[in-house]
UniProtKB/TrEMBL annotation:
This is U-box domain-containing protein. Pfam families: ARM_PUB (PF25598). Residues 12-179 form the U-box domain. The keyword Acetylation does not apply.
Length: 225
């Protein structure tokens, strides 16, 4: 509790040295079965994770691996998502989110069913992950986030609307680029003997995604173009 009170002071909260001293003992509290200790530890980590000087340290210390089980179990969800949001602008954090068991799926679930704050955190995290590596867009799309993003872009808070639209733009661009690459690949596989092109059937899921993304190419109030 003393550490938590100490970190209320801006000068302490912004100290990377203090974070490096505090973090190991706080991490230990995450492994205890004490609910109160866990809650206080998460609040402390949430505060120090907002400081750019401490983000890389927290990521390299394995904080994301400790948060993922809590997210999967639905425990302290808002605080866990807030920490991931704070860290998500670090490339290594995005890599851990993608590579950790059930982390991406838990974030995607909260994008769909979470509270207003949880949904805001989730869309910021997903946008950061996809912005670091467009190849990760395919993994995010496989989580079925398109319907939730579309709904959030219409009915979410102003903040959530802005970020969900940015996310949909990014996914639309990725999907268009992927389709172009597929066409080029098929064209390269053309049979020179008869001039026919080896075409692959478009899957139902691809058609569904295309329809969802195409609504942002039409002249509507939510048009992204």
């Amino acid at each position: 509790m003393m550490l938590h009170e100490l970190l209320q002071q801006p000068s302490c909260r912004k100290s990377s040295l203090l974070a490096s001293v505090v973090a190991p003992s706080v991490f230990g509290a995450l492994d205890t079965g004490d609910t109160k200790c866990l809650e206080v530890a998460l609040k402390i980590i949430c505060k120090i994770s907002s400081d750019d000087d401490t983000k890389s340290y927290l990521v390299s210390s394995g904080i994301i691996a400790k948060l993922c089980p809590l997210l999967s179990e639905g425990r302290h969800t808002e605080c866990c998502l807030n920490i991931l949001r704070n860290l998500s602008d670090v490339k290594e954090a995005a890599d851990f989110i993608i590579g950790s068991d059930n982390c991406l799926s838990s974030i995607s679930d909260n994008l769909d069913t979470g509270s207003c704050r949880e949904r805001e955190h989730a869309v910021v995290i997903l946008l950061a992950v996809c912005s670091h590596s467009t190849e990760d867009c395919s993994l995010v799309m496989k989580e079925g986030v398109i319907p939730a993003l579309v709904e959030l872009s219409v009915n979410g808070t102003n903040f959530a609307k802005d970020y969900s639209i940015k996310m949909l733009q990014l996914l639309r661009d990725y999907f268009s680029s992927s389709c172009s690459r597929e066409v080029a690949t098929n064209h390269a596989a053309e049979n020179p003997s008869n001039g026919s092109i080896c075409k692959q059937p478009i899957s139902n899921s691809a058609r569904y995604i295309s329809r969802k993304l195409n609504i942002f190419s039409k002249p509507r109030s939510l048009t992204l173009a």
